[in-house]
Design a protein that fits this description.
The N and C termini lie far apart (about 45 Å). This protein is mainly beta. It is about 10% helix and about 60% strand. The longest helix is centred in the first third of the chain and has 17 residues. A hairpin with a 4-residue loop joins β9 and β10. Strands 1-2-3-4-5-9-10-11 form an eight-stranded antiparallel barrel.
Length: about 250
Amino acid sequence: MKKIMLVLLSILCMFEVKAQNNSRDLCFQVIEDPYAQNFTDLSQKYDNDFNYLNLIIFGIGVKLNQPKSTMVLNLAYGLNANFYFFMPSYTFQSHLLGIAYEFQLLNKDKKVRPFARFNILTEVGSNYKNGFMLGYNPYPTYSHTPQFNGSHGSISGYINSSGFYVSTPLLTTLSVGVDFKIVEEFHINIGLGSGIQAMKYKYLKWNDGEDYKEKLKTIPEELKFFHIINANIGLSYSIPIKSNRKSKK
């Protein structure tokens, strides 16, 4: 995580140098970015191929206006949560920090402009650490499988199993779409994209009567990368930044 934050700070410094000779705005953004994870390339011990989550990104940063394009670089906070499928929405919550970079073609006076947006986020906290998962979906309970006596066919006991969520060290998306100017300071945009999510998790089997929480402490973490497909809608508001530099006579 420290390496990621150093990269983000370096990008911010380079962006500020670029902005010295162009008009700048203070920019606020809210982006709703629901997405689907694709699990088809993962272990067959999990049955479900897709998971659906809703990511909301709040950003504050600088908009750099150039004659034929606009660049926006925001410090971003993301709230990632489950939809209502297996359990109530927002039972699973992941809190992320990172940057959101947006590039808009054409002059800022145009009412409609194409854009590309890149987000890179890393988790800083979650209310669901070591929470149950069915496959890679947050789930309210674990599997409870009967074990049968081979000679008599009677149940001899139960084996429990579950995945356990650890963290999301990386969530990155690249989207393209269209930006609409409502008024000079207020814009709305829509887009589609794809990306990559990394998830750390654990998988455990245990017998009835065993303390799975204690056993879980000794289980190593596993890391998986998922392809994600996203659709987004965003709102942005900008305030011109007045320059204090005095022109040379």
